[in-house]
Amino acid sequence: MTTPDSGPSRWEKQESSLLARTRIFDLDQIRYRHPKRGAARDFVVIQPPDWVNVLALTSAHELVLVRQFRFGIDDFALEIPGGMIDAGESPLVAGARELLEETGYEGGEIKSLGTVRPNPAIQSNRCHIALATDVDLVGPTSWDTDEEIEVFLRPVDEVLQLARSGGITHSLVLNALFLFEPWWREMRARGV
Amino acid sequence: MTTPDSGPSRWEKQESSLLARTRIFDLDQIRYRHPKRGAARDFVVIQPPDWVNVLALTSAHELVLVRQFRFGIDDFALEIPGGMIDAGESPLVAGARELLEETGYEGGEIKSLGTVRPNPAIQSNRCHIALATDVDLVGPTSWDTDEEIEVFLRPVDEVLQLARSGGITHSLVLNALFLFEPWWREMRARGV
């Protein structure tokens, strides 16, 4: 898709200032200038590191789910393992690490299913979605401070049904299932 | 799913303080107390109003897409219409309003496909997903300050293919397509 002259303009990024620094993200105020109108406006941008979420599939075609208390929604959420990518760490290495730390599961193979933008209007980072196949429980969990995670397995089709009936509402987890579904159907069609 | 004694605890919300107020959200610091350990910890929570995104389908089975510059990612994003729900406004009324304002399209019927949580770990709000059917171009757009939107139609199957091949990366737009897909397949199976 091109940007015709009549289409939306690419605003020009100018100076940025820090509004707040938290454990999870910086909140910046960034000045943008409209290239045609010349007007400058300030916009706030949430700047977290990139994230990775992992669909971990056992050889019995079950997915590893996690359930934990989430402070953003002041409630429990049903999710897949994942977390922040450390500086210099690749998304797949981070995914395998988070899977092992949060659940004790480790996979035979891990690959990328794609990358999404959690919130393009106000947030800068990417969330990578990884698929780990033939995972097995290999050891104890190793949770961060404040983490308490219930880990359990559910058949893929039950997870998809949960996701489409309001049982899973976490946006990035639903993204992972959306990108996973064609792979899953193809695998099933091949009778694997 | 129950919360057994051995499972993750529900933290108790205590006092909250405002870290930053922006046009789009408040950033709060909220103190939580762990019910068993007794320890208190502060967590930051992004508090926007609820949002609504609208899949708008024409009678020719095309979806209304919008493309605009997004300051969060400093780039253009391909999306569906949507926006913030005003105080006291219902999600479907807000969806029909945003659709009309951003694109000039209006629908015969609008219904809910579900609700997702954009980011349970650090963000409080919900995003409602609406489906408007038999939409038509009925009038001019009415953009907010700073909005410049390219509006166009694409066949549903082309949009789904784009979404699964990296052409659409906006998390909440992918959520809408995930919840829409079974409805779409059923409609196709009925030969509508």
Summary?
The structure is a homodimer of 192-residue chains. By secondary structure, chain A is an alpha+beta fold.
Structure description:
With 192 residues, chain A is α+β, with helices and mostly antiparallel strands. The model of chain A has no long low-confidence stretch (mean pLDDT 94). In chain A, a hairpin with a 6-residue loop joins β2 and β3. Chain A folds into two domains: 36 residues, no CATH class; 139 residues, Nucleoside Triphosphate Pyrophosphohydrolase (Alpha-Beta Complex). Chain A contains three helices and eleven strands; from the N terminus they run βββββββαββββαα. In chain A, strands 4, 7, 8, 9 and 10 form a five-stranded mixed sheet that branches. A three-stranded antiparallel sheet of chain A has the order 1-2-3, with no helix packed on it. Chain A has a three-stranded antiparallel sheet with strand order 6-5-11. At the A-B interface, β1, β2, β3, β5 and β6 of A face β1, β2, β3, β5 and β6 of B.
Summarize the topology.
Two copies of one chain form a homodimer.
Chain A: E1 12-21, E2 26-33, E3 40-47, E4 51-58, E5 62-70, E6 75-79, E7 82-84, H1 91-103, E8 105-106, E9 109-116, E10 127-137, E11 150-155, H2 156-164, H3 171-189
Parallel strand pairs in A: 4-10
Antiparallel strand pairs in A: 1-2, 2-3, 4-7, 5-6, 5-11, 8-10, 9-10
**Class computed from helices, strands and strand pairing of chain A:** alpha+beta
Helix content of chain A: 10-25%
For this structure, the quaternary state is homodimer
Radius of gyration of chain A: 19 Å
CATH superfamily heading of the largest domain in chain A: Nucleoside Triphosphate Pyrophosphohydrolase
Mean pLDDT of chain A: 94
CATH architecture title of the largest domain in chain A: Alpha-Beta Complex
How many beta strands in the DSSP annotation of chain A? 11
